[in-house]
Design goal:
Blueprint lengths: L6 E5 L4 H12 L3 E6 L3 H12 L5 E5 L5 H15 L4 E4 L14 H29 L2 E6 L3 H4 L5 H21 L4 E6 L7 H4 L47
Parallel strand pairs: 1-2, 1-4, 2-3, 4-5, 5-6
This protein binds NADP nicotinamide-adenine-dinucleotide phosphate.
The site of NADP nicotinamide-adenine-dinucleotide phosphate has 33 residues, from helix 1, strand 2, helix 4 and helix 7.
């Protein structure tokens, strides 16, 4: 299998897009470390699904925004799996409101989880990648980080920041055979976007006029009609390959 013997660490893998990434990597033969923040049952369910592909899968509770907790978790994964080959920085949150009413703590928390959390994981995995003379990092940004989105000053700033850190890490580590890329999805039906439904003005800018189907689940939006082919609501952002 393509990724047999490789170890992937995926943050925010208990639900939504992270869950789908973890299961896809497992289906390709990678062992997976599933990081979650509070939802242990969901993370354990992802591990059970992943093991059906005859790979190793373990879940780890870790608030990625906490520098020391992230360090301990990366250390534990390295000890238990032997190494880390792929780091997928997917954990993310929203705390939306218009800027006039956005609370300071809402701004800080979103930046801490989405942007600093990604820095923390890269910071603690980098030495492992350098020792291995290789590694792959994928940061999950968002279309909101490219075009902005009313009500998401905190979120779009964090996601634009992810594009900056991606390009910088790619430049810093390319010579050591470590690749760093970002992906900027458009709306995908997950718990994160459930509250938004079809009413957000950003939806009107999507040519298909709807969110992407939920990863591995049933569509939630009323009137959803499946479209054959791959849903690509926004251009991916590549930094190194
Ligand atoms: P989701 O369904 O809400 O899942 C969020 C995941 O992040 C969960 O696994 C959650 O763990 C984890 N998480 C939250 N806070 C954390 C923390 N402090 N430390 C560690 N893990 C934490 O989200 P999603 O829609 O799949 O989004 C995944 C990523 O894609 C996010 O970065 C999001 O910004 C990005 N994205 C999503 C969309 C979209 O339309 N859905 C579009 C563009 C980009 P628990 O289950 O334990 O709470």
């Amino acid at each position: 299998m393509q990724y047999s013997g490789k170890v992937a660490l995926i943050t925010g893998a208990s639900r939504g897009i992270g869950r789908a990434i973890a299961l896809k990597l497992a289906s390709l033969g990678a062992d997976v470390a599933v990081i979650y923040s509070g939802n242990a049952e969901a993370a354990d369910e992802v591990c059970a699904e992943a093991r059906k592909f005859a790979v190793r899968a373990e879940s780890y509770k870790c608030d990625v925004s906490d520098f020391l907790e992230a360090k301990e978790t990366v250390g534990a994964i390295k000890n238990e799996f032997g190494t880390i080959d792929f780091l997928i920085n997917n954990a993310g949150i929203t705390k939306d409101s218009l800027v006039l009413t956005m609370k300071e703590e809402s701004f800080d928390r979103v930046i801490d989880v989405n942007l600093k959390g990604t820095f923390n994981m890269i910071r603690h995995c980098a030495a492992i990648f350098l020792k291995n003379k290789g590694g792959k990092i994928i940061n999950i940004s968002s279309i909101a980080g490219i075009i902005g989105n009313a009500g998401q000053a905190n979120y779009s700033a964090s996601k634009a920041g992810l594009i900056g850190i991606t390009k910088t890490i790619a430049r810093e580590l390319a010579s050591r055979n470590v690749c760093c890329n970002a992906i900027a999805p458009g709306f995908i039906e997950t718990d994160m976007t459930e509250a938004i439904g079809g009413e957000n003005p950003m939806m009107a800018s999507i040519p298909l006029g709807r969110a992407g189907p939920p990863p591995g689940g049933r569509p939630r939006l009323a009137g959803y009609q499946p479209t054959p082919g791959f849903f690509l609501p926004s251009p991916p952002v590549f930094s190194s390959s």
